[in-house]
Amino acid sequence: MRVHAPPPGYAPDGSGGPSAGDVAVRPWGSGFFVAPNWVLTCAHVALRGEGGAVADGGREVGLTFDGRTVRGRVEWAEPRENPGSGLWPAPDLALIRLLDPAPHACVWLTERTSKVFTRKEVAFFGCMEVDGEVEDVSGRCTIRGELGRDGKLRLGNEDEIPSGASGGPVVDLARGEVIGVLKARRGGQDGGLAISVLQLRGLPLPQLPARAESDDLFQRVVHGHDRHHADRHRLADTNRTTWTDAHNLLGATAGRALSPGMRTELLGLLAELPPPVSTSSLLAAVDELRGQPCENLPLAPRSWRDGLGLLYDLRRGQSELETILRYCVRVATAERPYEAAHGAERRLWNWAAAVAARERDLSRGFRNDLGREWLSRVNARRMDPGPSGVRVAAGPDDPPPGEAAPASSVLLEIDRRGWERDSYDWRIAIVDAAGDVRPVAEGADGTRLGELPQRLSAPLAEAFRRCDEPDRPAVLQVAVVRALLELPVETWRTRPDGPSLGELRPVVVRPADPDYDPDEVGEDAALRRARWKRVQAGPMEPVVLDCDQGTPVPVPVDAELRFRGLYSVPILCRASEAEDGPAALRRVTGAGYGVVLWRRERAGRDRVCSDFHRGVERTVADAGQADRLPEAVRRLRADLARREPEAYISQDLILLFDDPTRPLPGTDQPLETP
Predict the structure, then answer these.
(1) Contact indicator for 610, 478 with CB cutoff of 8 Å
(2) Cα of 162 vs its chain's centroid, Å
(3) CA distance 304 to 281
(4) Contact residues for 481 (Cβ-Cβ < 8 A; gap 6+)
(5) Is 391 exposed, middle or buried (0-12, 13-18, 19+ CB in 10 A)?
(6) Sheet of 93-98: strands edge to edge?
(7) What's the whole-number mean pLDDT along residues 275-293?
(8) What pLDDT shows up at residue 331?
(9) Residues 349, 329: contact at Cβ < 8 Å?
């Protein structure tokens, strides 16, 4: 596949494509079909030339393959432009949709979730110009390892990687699957670079809940990929070799539970079903079946095919097949974001039951257990069908109606490098409902404060994807030293054209340098925990401490702060403009308050205190309980983005939410590079 400028018209010979000397066929780079009418290439290839940035509606390009030229539209590219003068930063991938559908074959993309690259020889394919002619080119090399943690693969110099091959596929010859996309050759040096195809999981999630496959570009492409190969396998032309045939010839799954044909059939059946409702629900199911958590995943699984990939190489022989068949039952009876196609769930179960029946190594007891699990989950779902008839009934450990189950949150820690001016280290982790911390990403090389939003956009998006639930986005806890508590993280964006973090999810701050010891005992510790427990139970009483009808007043003395009711939630109207603002906030938190609201000051803003007081007091009172307050503030921020007049009180509003029963992990330890 050659990617080039859009064709200006038809060739003189009437073939429908430009002539050999036409500028349109001079390639910007290469690409390959990953699903019917979908081409994968590099962003720097798809956006080459003038007007390379992706505008609304995409950018048109030309695509030449099998002697024909068609038009395509760049539907996604990341990044959208090169911020520097060197190599484009990762992931450097783009998806192009054919505007003129044409018959074609597709590659096989690996479904393995980890250890995607091999130490054996791989092949690469692309095109290049030779004496004014464009020729297809291929070569072989090895993968020497990874470069960084964003999917870059280092290629050896066994064969020269020519100019024009960027965007072409890198094929694992032992397994018969595409594992990467050629990115660059190293001028004057050995080898080159490729990007792992797993980086496709970084495709943006739909901003609104998905109600159809077409709402989520990632699912649309991978489902089309798997259905294509299942159809080719089932209805294969006797004169055409399929990828499944090639897998059989290679012995690609030798010693594994699934033969190539079984794997192709299963992936096709999985692709007929709506995707998981969330990454966290998928990971929970896979972890349970594996009997151990999935760790060190650069990008978490996103589809049923990804979950299946996590079950490969786990156990050999009988138990591996048992685990996969149990996974089929879970998928066939899972909660759905939208209704499955008629009969799709039953077809998956029928496939699993047929495999269990014909495999002699599987015991009668296992087959009976599998059938009972299927019936139990189907009957439980009928008891509580949900809006689309696919919701699993609440279990005995689920919270009663009206109460939210404990949820995971994302923790962002930003730490100033004391020996360097305007330089910060950071780390991102997921804190689960039990308080256990799972690292996601870390930067210990120093980042300027103004560069943090861009630097953290991708790792934050990955962390959110791992723990967001439908209609329940994870809370972002921002742990910073007190001098940075007013850092406007709620205004950051994970996508340049997307909504701010504060619109999409609750964002709260925590002091990384608390004025108390998490392990302290005594009256102060008892008071702090008692205040936290009381505001969680509700109701809460909002109290403005430093302003009386527009007139600044001193914050009460320490003894009075400590004496106030346990249900009090302090509001600071003028903390940012007062000379002792930081000291006043420290006095408030030092008196045992773990929930505090205030607003950062903007120079030249016309302060209207009464509206701010009324709005924040009403927000606190209406929330009722402290654990509902972060979501109440998020709704205000979302209303502010829609320019709702009543929401202007939330402009620059900050919510400190410091749980003394859940101290920050490792606050006394320096950041370490993994």
Answers:
(1) no
(2) 33
(3) 11
(4) 415, 416, 511, 512, 513
(5) middle
(6) 29-30, 2-4, 60-65, 68-78, 93-98, 38-41, 32-35
(7) 91
(8) 97
(9) yes
What is the distance between the alpha carbons of residues 507 and 490, in angstroms, rounded to a whole number? 6
Residue whose pair of structure tokens reads 């009668």 in the numeric block: 364
CA distance 521 to 579: 33
The type of residue at 449 is: L
- Write the CB contacts of 609 (distance below 8 Å, at least 6 apart in sequence): 547, 549, 550, 573
| Both structure tokens of 60 | 């048109």
Residue 199 to residue 180: CA distance in whole angstroms: 9
Structure token pair of residue 132: 């004014």
Nearest of 20, 37, 43, 26 to residue 89 by alpha carbon: 43
Using DSSP, state whether 426 is helix, strand or coil.
Answer: strand
Answer for the pair 589, 658: CB distance below 8 angstroms, yes or no: yes
Residue 417, amino acid: R
Structure tokens at 442: 């870390």
Question: Which token pair is 162?
Answer: 């020519």
Question: Tell me: the pLDDT tens digits for 474-507?
Answer: 999 999 998 899 999 999 998 887 899 999 999 9
Report the distance separating Cα 655 and Cα 475, nearest Å: 12
Tell me the residue length of the chain.
674
Q: Which of 186, 92, 205 is nearest to 144 (CA)?
A: 186
Tokens 């009386």 -> residue: 548
pLDDT tens per residue, range 69-101: 999 999 999 998 888 778 899 999 999 999 988
Cα–Cα distance list, 109 to 40, 196, 225, 226 (Å): 11, 10, 8, 9
Residues 6+ apart with CB under 8 A from 455: 426, 443, 447
527 to 219, 532, 569, 590: CA distances (angstroms): 50, 9, 14, 11
Tokens of 33: 């079909």
Give me 488's structure tokens. Answer: 């406007």
> 3-state DSSP call for residue 97?
strand
User: Which of 8, 30, 33 minimizes the C-alpha distance to 129?
Assistant: 30
Retrieve residue 114's tokens: 């980890």
C-beta separation of 653 from 597 below 8 A = yes
Q: Could you report the per-residue pLDDT of 194-233, keeping only the tens digit for each?
A: 999 999 999 998 888 889 999 999 999 999 999 999 999 9
- Mean per-residue pLDDT, 578-591: 77
The amino acid sitting at 376 is S
User: For tokens 């008891």, what's the residue?
Assistant: 383
Q: Per the structure block, which two tokens stand in for 599? A: 């607003």
Lowest mean pLDDT: which of 256-260, 366-370, 382-386, 520-524?
A: 382-386
Task: Give the pairing of strands 568-572 and 595-599.
Answer: parallel
